[in-house]
Amino acid sequence: MGAGARLGSGLAAFRMIAAMWIRSTMAYRFSFAMTLLANFVVTFFDFVVILLMFSHVEGLGGFDFTEVAFLYGATSTAFGLADLALGQVSRIGRRVRDGTLDTLLVRPAPVLAQVAADRFALRRLGRVTQGLFVLVWALVLVDVDWTVLKVCVVPVMVLSGGVIFGAVMVAGAAFQFWARDAAEVVNSFTYGGNTLLQYPPTIFAKDLVRGVTFVLPLAFVNWLPALYVLDRPYPVDLPFSPSLTAFLPPLVAALCALLAGLCWRAGLRAYRSTGS
Amino acid sequence: MDFIELEDVRKVFDVRKKKGFLRRERHEVRAVDGISFTVPRGEMVGYIGPNGAGKSTTIKMLTGILTPSGGRVRVAGIDPSRERTRLAHRIGVVFGQRTTLWWDLPLIDSYKLAHRMYRIPDARFRANLDRCVELLDLAELLAVPVRQLSLGQRMRGDIAAALLHDPEVLYLDEPTIGLDVVSKAKVREFLRDLNTSAGTTILLTTHDLQDIEQLCKRVMVIDHGRLMYDGALAGLHEIGESERTLVVDLERELPPLDVPGARVRRVEGPRQWLAFPASASAAPLVTEIASAYPLVDLSVREPDIEAVIAKMYADRAELG
Predict the structure, then answer these.
(1) Which of A24, A106, A109 has its CB closest to that of B63?
(2) Coiled-coil stretches, from where to where (chain B) (predicted)?
């Protein structure tokens, strides 16, 4: 089966399984509405922390409040989208441990799609909604000389960011085929990365910023494109011109997705030859 | 052409044992060590052997879950590990120890998903589901979340799920493990009917010799990853000279009973264990004992597969 056909059947399987879970949660509409609201509120507290901070200080690392809100909204939306679609893959370690992965391997659908869509929960839309809310609010208030390119960069940034986070989740899940208890390590990269990106890069040590730019390219989720929109210099030297940062996120995202796909395949192949 | 073909199939696992803090010792485990057999379409075959003999590993290679380390596997002309999803449309799999149903959802949801995932035509799906619901007694269970089903109910639910897409072959890995007598009977009856009426090829692994006795004309015995026997069940009993055990409770302690056609293996107070050939009937033996001794109670124990295989080994060692 070619890569295109595989992707098609994966998406079809994801849609079927997700629809099944949505129907089952919709059987209890009130409970669904409450968990959605709870999800929204819990993630909103994240942002309240930043709000409180700005009631005491004027700026953070040279960024004003609306600019930090812009960074926050962009990464939260991207992370929320990735979590909605692929958050469940981190449970693969458990499936490898207890052997239930075998039952997925006898169905005529790609395993990744089955794992990702398992227990699909629309309540996780709460995080996406909250991120979008902050992002739109920041875009209205932030002081930017808007150009057509800058306007285009914003949605591309959010979507590419979602793909980058998703790729990290899948690569992390693939790692669990070998290290079955690595779920927490992976979470520190995804959840931890999301928290990191909520703040401006100028407040972190330069080596850390270099790490998330060149090693694990989380900086492409929001820092680089957002700093382009805000006309601010990046705190570490880049091997390419700053104006390029507007175009790089989709390329980086595609590369990350490719690498994550290869990791997943290698992981699954290792499982199928060792049986764990 | 045979439906299932295995040719010198091997599966080697690398097992690492912890030795001290960081040092690990590696050694190879040959779970399946050069197995060849063929199964024609429509046959019902029992695949038996003790724990860790390689039964499940073989099933996993036949379904494409595991890639063989060597040899050649073909099911319906397809190489399972290379074309896993294509093969999935043509096979049904039931794992006794773990369910393929969706754990937290009502049973019917698993079937509806199978309907779409296997792209089963509507009329076909309705007919198959109705038939399974009727024969496996599932009507009351369809709205119940799978996690609330008893083991026997779940097993019946699993068998139905494996059959909705009209598979040409059904693999069952320990389908009666842990089931009560009534559930076992129901499952066996259904499988026998499936094999005769739909012509579905069935390969089942089991610990329970009765499964084989009641279902399969052909039986394969595997141990230590090798095929020890392939043929009729009767032949296996002959080779293994397996014995059944008659446990008798007497009114009082007596010296070992003297009954023709049986020998006393063990005496413990008023209870005695008598071994007799599996091919012989228990009835004359019981009559004999009841007429000559003060009998209180008795029960017959079937030979277990471990005993049969142990016997096979012992005989070979004597011959060799």
Answers:
(1) A106
(2) none
Q: Do A103 and B13 touch (CB under 8 A)?
A: no
CA–CA separation, A210 vs A228, rounded Å? 17
State mean pLDDT over A256-263: 96
**Which one-letter DSSP state was computed for residue A211?**
I
- pTM of full prediction above 0.90: no
> Does residue B60 belong to the interface with chain A, where contact is any CB pair within 8 Å?
yes
* ipTM (interface pTM): 0.84
B88: nearest CA in chain A? A108
- Binning pLDDT at 50, 70 and 90, where does residue B127 land? very high
Secondary structure (DSSP) of B64-127: TSS--SEEEEEETTB-TTTSHHHHHTTEEEEESSS-SS-TTSBHHHHHHHHHHHTT--HHHHHH
The pLDDT value recorded for residue A132 is 94
Q: Does B63 touch chain A (CB under 8 A)?
A: yes
CATH value of B4-90+167-238 in 3.30.360.10, 3.40.50.300, 3.40.390.30, 3.40.640.10: 3.40.50.300
User: Does the pLDDT at position A37 exceed 80?
Assistant: yes
User: Mutating which of A106, A111, A180 best tests the B interface, going by the most B Cβ atoms within 10 A?
Assistant: A106
